[in-house]
Amino acid sequence: MSISAENVTWKVGKKIIVNDVSLRVNPGETVGLLGPNGSGKSSLLRLLAGLRRPHSGSVALDGKDISQIAKKQLARRIAFVEQHGMTEANMRVRDVVKLGRIPHHSPFSNWNTHDDETVNGALERVGMLDRSDQGWQSLSGGERQRVHIARALAQSPTEILLDEPTNHLDIHHQLQLMKLISELPVTSLVAIHDLNHASMFCDALIVMQQGEVVARGTPEKILTESLLWDVFRVETRIDISPYHGKKHIHYVL
Ligand SMILES: Nc1ncnc2c1ncn2[C@@H]1O[C@H](COP(=O)(O)OP(=O)(O)OP(=O)(O)O)[C@@H](O)[C@H]1O
């Protein structure tokens, strides 16, 4: 299922935060969204999730404008893992993940074994199944992040938007999560700061700067020393890793 934006602009007062952005994420692709702090990545993700209305332009799922799609149907399709996702206090891990199933239920439909299997599967994928009964408040930052991702997976989405999902995670879980996202049979757009992870795990990259898309294409094409200087003001040397065959960025001090 594809997600696309056409000439999307979003402002706060007179300040343009997302400036005339057009993009397309094809079915099943994992696309990385790169850009410096404040370049508009989170704002764009919120527009794509339908949480904000653009001032001009449109967002579409499979070519259908999301403003024409019922809220509940949208909630079944798109999962959004926000950067600072909040969850109610005093819930067990399992109950947080169960929230992901809400869009699939009407007020009168009962919880069934498929729901249980989906929740267990999601918990297992992020390595939190054995912590199902632990209280949310007692989790570490990284464990909370993994539970948020399990909640998104329990939603069985066709599109998943993730805002810096590896924040708080140790390197083992960062790599595990990026691998999981890249292998999911869903359309994924993921805001990410680690350029080497973007190179290793994304099919394509979109680069933002001051609210605009300034580059897009495969990591092989996009990740160049000149682009990284222009956008991030960092000096790099880039070669092909002998270990995974993808571009590897070395930072030069
Ligand atoms: N509701 C708002 N009111 C005012 N300014 C906002 C609002 N939302 C976003 N901004 C501003 O828009 C710019 C883009 O913010 P956004 O969070 O989208 O950037 P980002 O690329 O996700 O940054 P980061 O990498 O730091 O997470 C920032 O300068 C931010 O201060």
Automatic annotation (TrEMBL):
InterPro entries: AAA+_ATPase, ABC_transporter-like_ATP-bd, P-loop_NTPase. One of its GO terms (molecular function) is ATP binding. Residues 3-235 form the ABC transporter domain. It comes from the Bacteria. Pfam families: ABC_tran. Keywords: ATP-binding, Nucleotide-binding. Belongs to the ABC transporter superfamily. Drug exporter-2 (TC 3.A.1.117) family. This is ABC transporter ATP-binding protein.
